[in-house]
Specification:
8 helices; mainly alpha; 2 domains; globular; 163 residues
């Protein structure tokens, strides 16, 4: 592992007050959910720990990490971009930004990850409603995600995204 990667890993662990990627993933998830609950999640605020962690993780070459740490880094970055899609849609009302975030989220989302809303949002922000509807019908959703998926499609159909 090169010196820059070691430095970045040390920086992100120190920022989160954790000794490893497992702890980083846990702390990141807690901070992320707290910000979502309080409607404080913001993709642009440099003061938020979630954004600081995301920035540092993007500077770390995943090839320098072991398989497990690479997977945890990827999940954190997926989580950030997944929530950033919502921020771009409802807070920024910025379709190109939402498209960028949705594409990045899918790049980071592990294939085995159970969240299906990321893919649905990608379809919707790219104006691919027919594909979104077809995908919803053929995918195996857990109940709460199916409810969310149908709600998002209805919101799209009513023209309520980016408004």
């Amino acid at each position: 592992m090169n010196a820059i990667t070691k430095e970045k890993i040390s920086e992100v662990f120190c920022l989160a007050g954790v000794p490893d990627f497992k702890g980083l993933s846990r702390v990141y998830g807690e901070k992320d959910q707290e910000l979502m609950r309080t409607f404080s999640w913001d993709d642009e605020s440099s003061h938020l720990v979630t954004n600081q962690v995301k920035g540092i993780l993007e500077e770390i070459d995943p090839a320098e990490l072991n398989k497990n740490d690479r997977m945890l880094r990827r999940r954190i970055l997926w989580f950030w971009y997944h929530h950033a899609i919502s921020c771009a849609i409802w807070k920024r009302k910025d379709k190109p930004l939402a498209q960028f975030y949705a594409t990045k989220a899918l790049e980071f989302q592990p294939r085995s990850h159970p969240n299906k809303i990321t893919q649905l949002l990608w379809f919707l922000v790219h104006d691919r409603l027919a594909e979104a509807k077809s995908w919803i019908e053929k995918e195996d959703f857990v109940r709460y995600q199916l409810v969310t998926a149908r709600k998002l499609v209805k919101e799209y159909e009513r023209g309520k995204l980016f408004v």
